[in-house]
Specification:
165 residues, 2 strands
């Protein structure tokens, strides 16, 4: 109903142009494909199984971001009042550094800031690798369970139907 409602709303409200943006709800139909794809179901199973580990990793990244932004603000604010004007603007530097993107628009210039920035960059590499390792472990477990289940099913030599033990 939600997917087809945007088609009928302009007939009821012809002058409301913002109704057109509701048509984007039709994209929700793409989620139906998950039930027909073993790969997407496997990915969903891994996410469900490892959600606490992934949440913990994301929380660690968020806390590290707050810590890095706060420390960098106090270290660099006097030297660069425009670049590090607040803790929130320092967190922009933290996001660019933790994700190892490094746009170059904001960077530390004091020796202590450079030292702290390099430590944060090294920690950022580990923080990016942590969820990847969690997902890899989850996929390994899921694929092992799938192969165990497939090995239990045998075919009847006469009719070809599956025989479960």
């Amino acid at each position: 109903l939600i997917a087809i409602t945007p088609f009928y709303l302009p007939m009821i409200f012809p002058d409301m142009r913002f109704i057109r943006s509701i048509r984007l709800v039709r994209l929700l139909r793409a989620f139906k494909f998950a039930r027909y794809s073993d790969t997407i179901q496997t990915f969903g199973n891994v996410i469900k199984a490892k959600k606490m580990e992934l949440l913990t990793a994301m929380m660690m990244v968020f806390l590290l971001l707050i810590f890095a932004g706060s420390v960098m603000y106090y270290v660099e604010h006097d030297a660069q009042p425009k670049a590090f004007s607040s803790i929130m603007s320092s967190m922009w530097w933290g996001i660019a550094t933790l994700t190892t993107v490094g746009y170059g628009d904001v960077y530390p210039i004091t020796p202590l800031g450079k030292l702290f920035g390099s430590l944060i960059a090294i920690l950022g590499i580990g923080m990016v690798a942590l969820p990847a390792g969690i997902l890899a472990s989850g996929f390994s477990t899921e694929l092992t369970e799938m192969t165990k289940e497939k090995s239990k099913i045998k075919k009847c030599p006469h009719c070809g139907k599956d025989i479960c033990e």
